[in-house]
C-alpha cells in the first residue's frame, strides 16, 4: 500500500481533511489537496477564526494571515493582515512560486491579489460583527481582557510520491490591534516542512509560539530521529517550561506534526482537537488532553461533534 497522510489543527478541519484525503488516496498532489482543504475552512461562515466569518480586529476589520510551504523545494509564500480577499491560502500558494517578494502584507498583499485576479469579498459576516459588538460591550462593562478567541487551521500532507507541503490560514487573535501579525504566516514559527524529514505547524498564542520558532524546532527534533509525537510534545513541554521560567507564564500552544513516512503526532499544553487521515485511518476528529506530562488522545464521539455543530451555529 502506498503511503499518504494528512493532519490538521482543530475540529473545524474535518470536512477539509475528508476532501483532501480523498485526493491523496486518488494519487493527487499534496499541494492541491491542502489548498482545497483549507479553502473549505476559509469559505465556511461558521468557523470564526479563519477566512469568511473570521472574527475582526479591534477596529472591526477582518485581517487575515496565511502561508504555504512546499517540502520539496522549500518554497514559501505568505500574506499577512490582508483584507477583503476570499481565499488567502490561494494567494499564499501563488506567492510561493516566486523568487522575490514571497511574503506580502496589508495593502501590498491586496494590490498583488487584485492584479492577479483573486476573488474579492467582504469577509465580515453579520454574525462576526455582532460577536465583536458584544465583546466591546463586555470589555467595557466587565473589564475583561480583549484577547479571547483564536484558532488557526494548519494542515500538513504527504502524497503518494512522498512530496510534502504545509498550509496555514487564520484571522489571528480576536480583537487584535490593526496590523498585528501572529506566528501563522511566519516560517519556522507557524509552520515548516522539509520532504527529507517531515513537517510541523502551530496554533495558539502567536506571540509565544514565535519566541521559540516552534515548528522548525519540531522538524529538527524529527531530524534527530524522534517520532512526530515525541518531537511535538517534547518541544511544547520544554518551551512552555522555558516561558514559565523566564516570564512567569506560557500561552496556549498546540502543534501538529507529520513525518515523511506518513506518521503523525501532536504536542499541546491545553485541551486541543485535531483531525488526521492515513491509508489505515479514516478521517477523524481527535481530542488531546495533557495530563501529568503525557498527552491523552481520544477519538471525538458523535455526541461531541453534534454538540460542536450546534454550538458554532447558535444565535449570538
Ligand atoms: N496562532 C494564531 C495567532 O496568534 C492564533 C491561533 O492559532 O490560535 O495569530
Can you characterise this structure?
This protein is of the alpha+beta class and 316 residues long. The strands form two sheets. It has a nine-stranded mixed β-sheet. Strands 7-8-9-10 form a four-stranded antiparallel β-sheet. The mean pLDDT is 95. The chain contains nine helices and 13 strands. The chain has one domain (5-313): (Glycosyl)asparaginase (Glutamine Phosphoribosylpyrophosphate, subunit 1, domain 1, 4-Layer Sandwich). The chain binds aspartic acid. Aspartic acid is lined by residues 150-152, 170, 172-173, 182-184, 203-206.
Task: Explain briefly what this protein structure is.
This protein has 316 residues and is α+β, with helices and mostly antiparallel strands.
Provide key terms for this protein.
four-stranded antiparallel β-sheet, binds aspartic acid, 13 strands, Glutamine Phosphoribosylpyrophosphate, subunit 1, domain 1, 316 residues, 35% helix, alpha+beta, single chain, nine-stranded mixed β-sheet
Largest beta sheet, briefly?
Answer: 9 strands, mixed
Q: What is the mean pLDDT?
A: 95
What percent of residues are in strands? 25-35%
Radius of gyration: 18 Å
- CATH architectural grouping: 4-Layer Sandwich
Which consecutive residue ranges, at least 5 long each, have pLDDT under 50?
none
| CATH class assignment | Alpha Beta
Oligomer: single chain
What is the total domain count?
1
Topology as a string of helices (H) and strands (E)? EHHEEHEHHEEEEHHHEEEEEH
Structural class: alpha+beta
Bound molecule kinds, no repeats: aspartic acid
Overall shape: it is globular
Q: Helical proportion?
A: 25-40%
Question: How many strand segments?
Answer: 13
How widely separated are the two ends? 48 Å
- The CATH topology is what? Glutamine Phosphoribosylpyrophosphate, subunit 1, domain 1
So, the CATH homologous superfamily?
Answer: (Glycosyl)asparaginase
- Name the strands of the widest sheet in spatial order: 4-3-2-6-5-1-11-12-13
Amino acid at each position: 500500500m502506498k503511503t499518504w497522510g494528512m493532519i490538521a489543527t482543530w475540529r473545524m478541519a474535518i470536512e477539509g481533511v475528508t476532501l483532501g484525503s480523498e485526493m491523496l488516496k486518488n494519487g493527487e498532489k499534496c499541494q492541491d489537496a491542502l489548498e482545497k482543504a483549507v479553502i473549505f475552512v476559509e469559505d465556511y461562515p461558521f468557523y470564526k477564526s479563519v477566512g469568511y466569518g473570521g472574527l475582526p480586529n479591534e477596529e472591526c476589520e477582518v485581517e487575515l494571515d496565511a502561508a504555504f510551504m512546499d517540502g520539496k523545494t522549500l518554497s514559501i509564500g505568505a500574506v499577512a493582515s490582508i483584507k477583503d480577499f476570499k481565499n488567502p491560502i490561494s494567494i499564499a500558494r501563488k506567492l510561493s512560486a516566486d523568487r522575490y517578494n514571497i511574503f506580502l502584507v496589508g495593502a501590498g498583499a491586496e494590490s498583488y491579489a487584485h492584479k492577479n485576479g483573486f476573488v474579492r469579498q467582504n469577509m465580515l459576516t453579520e454574525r462576526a460583527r455582532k460577536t465583536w459588538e458584544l465583546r466591546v460591550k463586555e470589555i467595557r462593562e466587565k473589564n475583561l481582557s480583549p484577547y479571547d478567541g483564536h484558532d488557526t487551521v494548519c494542515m500538513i500532507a504527504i502524497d503518494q510520491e512522498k512530496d510534502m507541503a504545509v498550509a496555514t490560514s487564520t484571522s489571528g487573535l480576536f480583537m487584535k490591534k490593526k496590523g498585528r501579525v501572529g506566528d501563522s504566516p511566519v516560517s519556522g514559527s507557524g509552520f515548516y516542512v522539509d520532504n527529507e524529514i517531515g513537517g510541523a505547524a502551530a496554533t495558539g498564542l502567536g506571540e509565544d509560539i514565535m519566541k521559540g520558532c516552534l515548528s522548525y524546532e519540531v522538524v529538527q527534533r524529527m531530524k534527530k530521529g524522534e517520532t512526530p509525537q515525541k518531537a511535538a510534545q517534547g518541544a511544547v513541554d520544554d518551551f512552555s517550561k522555558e516561558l514559565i521560567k523566564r516570564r512567569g507564564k506560557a500561552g496556549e500552544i498546540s502543534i501538529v506534526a507529520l513525518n515523511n513516512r506518513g506518521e503523525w503526532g501532536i504536542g499541546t499544553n491545553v485541551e486541543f482537537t485535531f483531525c488526521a487521515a492515513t491509508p489505515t485511518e479514516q478521517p477523524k476528529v481527535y481530542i488531546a488532553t495533557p495530563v501529568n506530562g503525557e498527552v491523552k488522545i481520544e477519538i471525538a464521539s458523535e455526541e461531541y461533534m453534534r454538540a460542536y455543530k450546534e454550538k458554532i451555529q447558535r444565535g449570538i
